[in-house]
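Problem 12. The chain below contains 458 residues. Write out its predicted structure in token notation.
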Amino acid sequence: MTEITRDVVVIGAGPAGTAAANTLQEARLSVAVLEARDRVGGRTWTNTVDGAWLELGGQWISPDQTALLETIEDLGLETYSRYREGESVYIGREGEAVRFTGDIFPVAPETEKTMVALIEKLDTMVAQVDPDRVWEAPDAEALDKISFEAWLREQTSDQEVIDNIGLFIGAMMLTKPPHAFSMLQALQMAASAGSFTDLVDADFILDKRVVGGMQSVSQGLAARLGDDVFLEQPVRFLEWSDNGVVARADGMTVRARHAILAHAPVLYSRISFEPPLPRRQQQLHQHLSMGLVIKVHAVYERPFWREQGLSGTAFSPYELAHEAYDNTNHGDERGTLVAFVSDRLADGVFELSADERREKILDSLSHYYGPEAKNPLVYYESDWGTEEWTRGAYAASFDLGGLARYQKDVRTPVGPIHFACSDIAGAGFQHVDGAIRMGRTVAAEIAAEIIAERKESR
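Solution.
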């Protein structure tokens, strides 16, 4: 059993962990990063499947994600824009595929009017929410006691409005049905992106991709850490006191002054803490849960939808695949579509055999793009719910009443133990940008504390 000593041990080598470790090294502190997987990147993962290069995890960048953009530039990586030329497709309650441009779905005039008014109302409410301090928002407790779906039903009786507005936050972002999370959680999700309007604008929120894949961000940061990144080292025990921590992994032990848990909150329970975490943390972590979504990759000989004048962007709250996009790789002659099947619909297709599931999902894509969508060269499903060290996607969110009650303590250190991940970010919540922000912030706080301690001891 290898035993080493460092100033800080970071548990998790995703964007948060690698960003934190780099910040600590820049402050001339020693660090060890312990990663349970056999790779870095966390919920970002670029891999080749059946000869096709695929982004299995998080991949998109929006213009407001400045921490991520700065990191990409610093690493010398390049970005490229998502293909968006041509018309989008919307399938309404009657099952008819309608082409459109712009952000508002092609619905009946009264439905459109109500949707626009609701989006404006949500923008007004979001403007009063600090995503880092949601519990201070006006009527926070009341808004946290009502589900997003129930709130929508208080605003309108138009079911298509309810279905579409619910789609934006539920299936597309939190990957939970809108009755399962609060109105306050919906406002935080929108506030983390700047506004509800930004959140529903696919050209904004899904603006660019990284040449070489989003995982290359963590890989680049990890490369700078050299031999201080240790793979296949899940931490099983974490002893802590005012004097520091002892992290015991499968093949090594790290003694350090501080620890950063840089992974999803749903995995905190995989570590045995000695002594146990305080009551507050034990409780709040039980009110955070992951969503569920299947990310579907379909690779074709060519991007045939472009020949039809389609951008590849498609939406419908009434389809099995509720959203889809042109995900063709930079410089690739083949065409790739990426589609998503969320929450309860994902439950249903997982009851089917793999062949039946593939058939149903591709049939849903054909409703947007035509029969050619049924015959990809490569088909693959990213199912993060089966990943041992993730257990869902895209990130964790609170149940009803949990956000106003617990958010102020999600980042509160427990002695020498600190928390950093996209799930507890404000700006960039659930995104790589939020992970990097959290990693940098926590590392800077630790560095300042250690440096102050050393000055006092001189």
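Discussion. Residues 2-42+214-277+414-457 form a domain with the FAD/NAD(P)-binding domain fold (CATH 3.50.50.60). Students who got a different answer should revisit the alignment rule from Section 12.3.
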